[in-house]
Design a protein that fits this description.
- By secondary structure, the protein is an alpha+beta fold.
- The protein has 5 helices and 8 strands, in the order αααααββββββββ.
- A hairpin with a 4-residue loop joins strand 1 and strand 2.
- Helix 1 packs across helix 2.
- The longest helix is centred in the middle third of the chain and has 46 residues.
- The N and C termini lie far apart (116 Å).
- About 7% of the residues have low confidence.
């Protein structure tokens, strides 16, 4: 009964190899004898057709010897079913792979968290912008009253809300210098005037995609609703300076891209009865205390103000524009 090659022992494989080599040698001797190249010497016994017992070497068979013995067994007609050697489990490779998986998961998780925060912030700004657009269609906004335009020591648009019962501290409400805090504490905003048809209601800036309502007042609460007109500044299309301000990174980010404007760009300010086009003349940045930019002019002009740079807000960006003429 024949055995499969993987069922043979090392000794049996060695014996099989020995017998095959012995048979090959006998065949070679027979061939040489038939060719006359082999001379038998008288007195010597004839070669033994049966191989003598195998003297086994003391060395252990290695993988190469076993492979060669399997090949000989196959040639001799034995059924060989070779099994590949099993590799031992590499624990270091498994541990390194696990650490790599953990690191990739941590980086991916952090990216997902940051993406969620960014998405939430954008959604809040979009919701507030939609609310401002809806409010602009129903508000009855009053015209400005004849109050002095320069009533502040700091330009509007600060990012920290007032706290009832507490005075502003240095750095709050738009980086207020300490020596100006007494003037800020004593300042009382003028009342919002009654509505009128010539009051500014809407601002459009095609170059940066702005189309928002204009509300009266530029304090913390009013700037939540849209672009705030400083009370006491000029009416649209009239001689004087209409001063408008809005935030750049909260409450809809209305004035985020004022720095992209170029001289010659249009700013359209509308009332209930007319629309007035102003042409950008200059864009600059100033300290928060540069309230001279809000001063009245002896010709129709507009001044747009917002914090700058984006999400740093240590300065103000100011856009100066003049009313377009028909000529």
């Amino acid at each position: 009964m024949k055995k499969a090659a993987d069922e043979l022992t090392i000794e049996e494989l060695q014996q099989l190899l020995y017998q095959k080599r012995y048979a090959e040698r006998r065949q070679r001797l027979q061939r040489l004898k038939g060719e006359g190249r082999l001379v038998e010497i008288a007195g010597l016994p004839a070669p033994n057709p049966t191989p003598p017992p195998l003297v086994r070497p003391s060395v252990k068979a290695n993988g190469a010897m076993q492979g060669y013995a399997l090949e000989l067994a196959n040639e001799a007609g034995e059924t060989a079913v070779a099994k590949p050697p099993r590799r031992p489990l590499n624990l270091r490779w498994v541990f390194n792979s696990f650490l790599l998986f953990v690191e990739v998961g941590a980086v991916l998780g952090l990216f997902i968290i940051l993406l969620g925060l960014w998405s939430t912030r954008n959604e809040l700004n979009q919701e507030l912008a939609a609310a401002q657009d809806a409010e602009s269609q129903r508000l009855a906004l009053p015209p400005p009253s004849p109050t002095p335009v320069i009533g502040l020591v700091v330009l509007p648009g600060g990012h920290k809300p007032p706290i009832e019962g507490f005075s502003p501290e240095p750095g709050e409400a738009g980086n207020i210098p300490a020596h100006l805090l007494p003037a800020i504490n004593a300042y009382v905003p003028p009342p919002i005037p009654t509505p009128g048809p010539e009051q500014a209601r809407r601002i459009q800036i095609p170059a940066i995609g702005v189309d928002k309502p204009i509300v009266q007042g530029d304090d913390w609460e009013q700037l939540k609703k849209g672009v705030g007109q400083h009370i006491g500044s000029a009416q649209p299309g009239r001689v004087g300076n209409i001063v408008l301000s809005a935030h750049n990174d909260i409450f809809g980010e209305i004035f985020r891209h004022l720095d992209r404007l170029q001289p010659g760009d249009e700013i359209i300010i509308s009332t209930e009865v007319n629309a007035y086009t102003y042409i950008v003349r200059e864009i600059t940045t100033v300290e928060p205390t540069a309230v001279h930019v809000m001063a009245p002019t002896d010709y129709p002009s507009a001044t747009l103000i917002s914090c700058y740079p984006y999400q740093v807000n240590t300065h103000r960006i100011v856009v100066f524009a003049d009313l377009a003429t028909d000529s």
